[in-house]
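#lab-general

N.A. 3:47 PM
ok so I finally got the sequence cleaned up, no stray characters, all 776 residues accounted for. can someone with queue access submit it? mine expired

B.Y. 3:52 PM
send it over

N.A. 3:53 PM
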Amino acid sequence: MIEKLNYTSDYTFSERIFNPLELAKTETIMCLGNGYLGLRSSAEELYALQSRGLFIAGIFNKIDKNEVSELPNCADFIGTDILLDGQPFDMLRGSILDYEKELNMKDGRLTRKIKWELNGKEYFFDFERFVSNADLHIVGQKIKISADKDVSINLTTGINGRVTNSGAQHFNDGEKRFVDKKYLQVVSQTTQSKIAVCCSMGLQIYIDGKKREVPLKIGMDRRRIMVSMNFDLKAGQCVEIEKIVDIRTNRDLDSENVDLEIMKNKSLDNMKKVLNEGYLTAFNENARALDAKLWSKAPIKIHSSNFFDQLANNFAKYHLHIMTPAHDSRMNIGAKGLSGEGYKGHTFWDTEIFALPQFIYSNPQIAKSLVKYRYLSLVGARKKAKENGYKGAQFPWESAWIDDGEVTPAWSAADIVTGIPLRIESGFIEQHITSDVAFGIWQYYVATDDEEFMKECGYEVIFETAKFWTSRLEFCEEDSLFHINDVIGPDEYKEHINDNAFTNYMAWWNIRCAISYYERLKEDNNFQELLRELELEEAYKDFISVVDKIYLPAPNCDNVIAQDSTYLSLKEIDLEKYKNQSQSGGIYEDYNAEQISKIQVTKQADVLLLLLLFENLFSDDVKQACWNFYEPRTLHDSSLSLSTHTILACDLKDVELAYKFFERASRIDLGENMHSCNDGVHAAALAGIWQSTILGFGGVRMLKGELRIKPKLPKQWSRLEFVLYWKGQRLEVDIFENKISIVNCSNEVAMKIQVFDETIYFDGSGKVATAVCIEE
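B.Y. 4:20 PM
back already:
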């Protein structure tokens, strides 16, 4: 039996069965990208359930005043109509004799090889494409066709702007032109944000490997420009079409304030240059750049009896790379990356809590770009705080372009009881995002010592978010404490709750962090202007007056921390049915949101996430008691949840259970569920695979400003090798045979690392390696 997905190597996986009802799976998990643009891996030919997608980071558009801005689906240039003796190539007709669609993550190449029979003729198709990591604007595509008998072939391809976001058209018709009877170019503009997108395309044609000039028949109509070409091939002859596309926008850093004609010519000239150099040259440059930017930068090597573990880590690293706009700090990671329309391309707390640590430790420059995005978004955060009657900066639950402010939709799916749409409350009351942003900046600073960034950006965000919390707190005369009422915590099953433990502790930490930084900076003459601009002398008084009076839920007599003020008194039900579900959200088939809010059930890690982020605040007994209470009640209906449980299970020394969670997390997108990611990959879950590997089994933590490594490898792993960046130094860590070897490849500054209970010193003057025994 041929499996639907074949996991063929550490860097490749393939689909061996074509199923027209399951197209979205491989369109998503095999998508291509470079952080600037993402290209879904839909077929060249057309199928009813196919979802073409080309997404460019940062070009949000709002289709209607009653809708929020979203990442628009740009023009399609992959689609190709193929006629064979006048009959359309369509795998739903004829017979598929052999089929394989494969993604090679090592070199960023998608291939599709098909042997197909129709009317007694056998046809052979080789499709290939890549998105360049050497030139962010370039996409390459190649099509090869041959047959066992003489055949007449007609191909039609071009730039098709008739794509939509679930029916919403974000672009005008645009300006179309056919240049020198060889090249196609379309410039269209988003309807509301007025962003111009320029797409230039050129073709090279080969017959049996020899370049041929073939007449192109041009066609233009509404929102598209196409070219057709005809070939009469003898049996065994092969026609090969190489296509190069350059795509860019006037929001790009190098195109802002540039005349549109200059941008159009630049796009056309660059496409011609790459086309003339050849598809193979462009592809090889892409492969070298991908290796330098990703695979050689911070490799992870897992020696496991389970082959899938290494593949899953490579899959996670690949997708995090191709979805992250490292080229421009005005943009951030979407919850579905650049792989689909899910969550409209918006940025959530997923970046700070889940994705950011991976970049802090593996590529600090990208981490810096991600945290700077939040600084650049302060204008919208300040606006939201002011509109809601608060001080400082309140960050949006969902973010898009830096000055968009809150972009969370107001309504979602239907309530199963009332039949009317559910109101999405997150944009109004899921407020922990504000301290999550500050936490991410703090993590970056501690790991890098980037004082310049903090002076220019970071301190301001931490002070402004602390101001928000001082104004958000509510004083209770009854207990003389400050509370945070009417919120949603990480567990989104519980709305309009009071004193969510995660939210309260994060707010308390945010204010404490601001106090600490103010007390240090007020004595430094270099920061006096910043302190005056932010009116921090008065704000500091507010910080001091509230910080020790914030209600922080403490462990009860059973050592359990209450998730919120009412959770422990809610009704208990048998959750086994929902714990074992193959699809998330099954509980909504039996209960509506109001009913779920009255049950002791948790969507995702909430208190347990708190214990992970602030592990020094809680004893092992508290961690174990909270695990015993909350884990059976957690359905993991959010893909963010499993990695937290993996890491915490490692901390609690249940490595076997941790590995089970890790396996589940690894298969959210890459597993055999063929509908798990139709709308795009789960970005935070992919980051969670890295976290589970490095923070969980690798035992890497940042505690009290120091790096600690305390690994606990599962029995399936004999060895774990990885690279970390800490304080500007590149560290190579090798965990094997009851030993840890750490090599400081930079060795430029004095530093220390805590390895179990031993402190390892690198003095910056030649000592570059050490090895210590692993704790038994």
